[in-house]
Backbone:
């Protein structure tokens, strides 16, 4: 249902309307914090008694953690004009018609404070602040139904078990997504399922101070989900070895089949994947198909590939792929929607899916947004083809792709980035989109690959037995959610976010059996949250960083890996807290410079905090090499031999339980650090 949202700030503050901080909020910028313009006392009497020794004088100085959070929640100095650090609950009156929804924080979502925390009836803003430590925006939220029209248009009545009468009851999943996406009933006041209104996004969290490759402006709002029905049919045109879907509208494989002349390129198969009599045009479709040409979707047309139990015409699609011939499905400014189906390569000479062989091609699927920004450079685009979206829902995708650009198996990409990165603002103008949910992906060259992807939700999938990576969001793929997946037996990293992939959230995944790291944040993939993952039996680190910053890594369990966590090449200002590392073969906690050339730092890991972690059954509990100002606090080590600090400066070491370990090398600790007995 569409709701009217009421999001309450943590405390009311007085501000001068004429002044704004860099994050867009009214106030004065002080050392990276946004203070109210007229600064009064420091949140009441609580600040002066904090361990950090804060007083009212700290109100507008570097000790501020964020505007609006009480001292009791943060241990830092907020600024409130009223001097009251314990506000009362501000609940809308019943006459307003609002319903209390809970305490929320700022996980990325285009129209609301997103993450459900708790719906305690006695919730106050201070309790909500405690629940939401570490987030830039949070508050209590109430909703009010705006009034229900028809149920998302005509599409809902065609879904299993849903009718228009379901519009405003519990079967609704959320406002906005259409029936074909969720299988549940959305609610639009205007009764139009083709164009739900887009609301303004919640502002992005203000980042901590860290190196930055290139500043980004606000990301564009993603397009509406693929429609559940179309007013028009796409134009189908067959030209030599390519079938085109053009001129907007929607189409299915049956539309292609009906447009051909009896000689393919789409063939009807029986249950044993053999062609039936009249397979090229006269046979009755069975829901199983063989494709022997390329398909190209352009002009904002949409190809639906859906299983018969979802109201579609495709339970299985085999794409011919032999040593000499292989084909692609190519969305080039068009869209693809896969639901309840299976799509694989198919070696027609052997009657089975084609497994990867080095130096040989295989069939693949790609979704390409192409934008001409009139920028002259090597790698730039000279065409404007439009935006592509590809969704994979409740489907199986197997044995596709090889080692060539855009041909990795499942690829989402924005074309047009200059090789010298001089036009990174390209990604503020155009993105590529799509979700992967409840699907089984295997045997790809890369399990999936994206470049310029915005806001993907990749959840509840099996991602396994791929030649290289599992999930591989690359250059400027931002605001992704990668959660509840089982990622295993991939040849390289299980999950890697590489090159300016910001605000990625990775949680509740099991990642194991990989040839490299379980989870890797690479090259300015900043402001990530990685938590509640079980990572085990990988050949490299459980979690790895390379020149990435401002991540929160917490509540992960890492077992039987070469390194517990490793931070290299200047990675800084990362918080690694409350994780468990067990049976690590080399180093539990590891920082080092490495041999790569830095882009945005001096290469020395700096300002990282390791706090409250448990490291057990590891010979070298900590190897801190070539780092500066790193903090190790209140960690528990069990059955470790040594701690080593080599070419590191100003390491803080306090409150750690040594578990019998001794200091093998390194003496450069900050004043006040605890001593470690020498070996």
Residues:
């Amino acid at each position: 249902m569409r709701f009217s949202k009421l999001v309450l700030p943590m405390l009311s503050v007085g501000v001068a309307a004429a002044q704004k901080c860099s994050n867009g909020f009214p106030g004065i910028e002080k050392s990276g914090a946004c203070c109210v313009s007229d600064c009064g006392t420091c949140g009441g009497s609580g600040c002066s008694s904090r361990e950090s020794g804060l007083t009212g004088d700290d109100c507008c100085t570097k000790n501020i953690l964020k505007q609006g959070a009480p001292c009791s929640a943060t241990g830092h100095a907020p600024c409130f004009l009223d001097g009251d650090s314990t506000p009362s609950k501000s609940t809308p009156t019943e006459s307003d018609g609002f319903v209390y929804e809970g305490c929320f924080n700022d996980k990325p979502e285009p129209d609301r404070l997103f993450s459900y925390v708790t719906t305690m009836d006695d919730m106050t803003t201070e309790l909500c602040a405690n629940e939401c430590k570490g987030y830039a925006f949070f508050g209590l939220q109430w909703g009010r139904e705006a009034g229900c029209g028809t149920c998302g248009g005509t599409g809902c009545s065609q879904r299993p078990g849903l009718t228009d009468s379901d519009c405003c009851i519990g079967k609704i999943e959320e406002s906005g997504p259409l029936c074909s996406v969720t299988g549940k009933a959305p609610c639009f006041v205007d009764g139009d399922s083709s164009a739900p209104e887009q609301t303004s996004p919640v502002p992005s969290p203000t980042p901590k101070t860290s190196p930055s490759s290139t500043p980004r402006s606000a990301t564009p709002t993603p397009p509406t989900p693929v429609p559940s029905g179309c007013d028009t049919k796409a134009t189908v045109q067959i030209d030599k070895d390519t079938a085109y879907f053009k001129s907007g509208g929607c189409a299915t494989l049956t539309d292609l089949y009906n447009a051909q002349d009896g000689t393919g390129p789409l063939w009807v198969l029986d249950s044993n994947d053999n062609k039936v009599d009249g397979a090229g045009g006269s046979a009755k479709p069975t829901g199983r198909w063989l494709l022997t040409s390329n398909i190209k979707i352009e002009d904002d047309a949409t190809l639906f590939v859906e299983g018969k139990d979802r109201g579609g015409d495709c339970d299985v699609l085999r794409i011919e792929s032999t040593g000499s011939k292989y084909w692609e499905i190519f969305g080039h400014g068009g869209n693809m929607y896969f639901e309840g189906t299976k799509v694989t390569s198919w070696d027609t000479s052997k009657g089975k899916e084609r497994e990867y062989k080095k130096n040989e091609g295989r069939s693949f699927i790609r979704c390409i947004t192409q934008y001409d920004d009139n920028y002259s450079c090597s790698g730039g685009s000279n065409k404007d083809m439009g935006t592509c979206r590809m969704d994979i829902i409740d489907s199986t995708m197997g044995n596709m792709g090889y080692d060539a650009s855009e041909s990795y198996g499942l690829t989402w990409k924005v074309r047009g980035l200059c090789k010298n990165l001089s036009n990174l603002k390209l990604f503020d103008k155009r993105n590529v989109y799509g979700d992967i949910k409840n699907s089984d992906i295997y045997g790809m060259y890369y399990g999936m690959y994206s470049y310029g992807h915005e806001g993907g939700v990749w959840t509840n999938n099996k991602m396994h037995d791929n030649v290289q990576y599992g999930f591989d969001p690359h250059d400027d793929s931002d605001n992704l959610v990668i959660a509840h997946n089982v990622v295993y037996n991939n040849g390289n990293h299980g999950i890697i976010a590489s090159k300016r992939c910001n605000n990625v959230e990775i949680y509740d995944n099991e990642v194991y059996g990989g040839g490299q790291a379980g989870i890797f944040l690479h090259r300015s993939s900043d402001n990530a949250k990685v938590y509640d993952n079980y990572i085990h039996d990988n050949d490299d680190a459980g979690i790895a960083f390379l020149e990435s910053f401002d991540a929160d890594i917490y509540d992960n369990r890492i077992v039987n890996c070469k390194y517990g966590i490793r931070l290299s090449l200047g990675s800084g200002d990362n918080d690694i807290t409350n994780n468990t590392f067990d049976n690590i073969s080399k180093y539990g906690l590891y920082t080092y410079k490495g041999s790569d050339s830095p882009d945005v730092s001096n290469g020395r890991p700096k300002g990282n905090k390791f706090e409250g972690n448990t490291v057990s059954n590891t010979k070298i509990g900590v190897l801190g090499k070539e780092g500066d100002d790193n903090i190790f606090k209140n960690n528990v080590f069990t059955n470790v031999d040594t701690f080593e600090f080599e070419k590191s400066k100003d390491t803080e070491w306090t409150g750690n339980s040594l578990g019998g370990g001794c200091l093998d090398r390194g003496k450069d600790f900050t004043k006040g650090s605890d001593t470690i007995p020498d070996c």
Notes: The two ends are 65 Å apart (CA to CA). The domain at 493-679 is CATH 2.160.20.10 (Pectate Lyase C-like). Confidence is low (pLDDT under 50) at residues 1-18, 36-97, 107-120, 144-224. The longest helix spans residues 125-131.
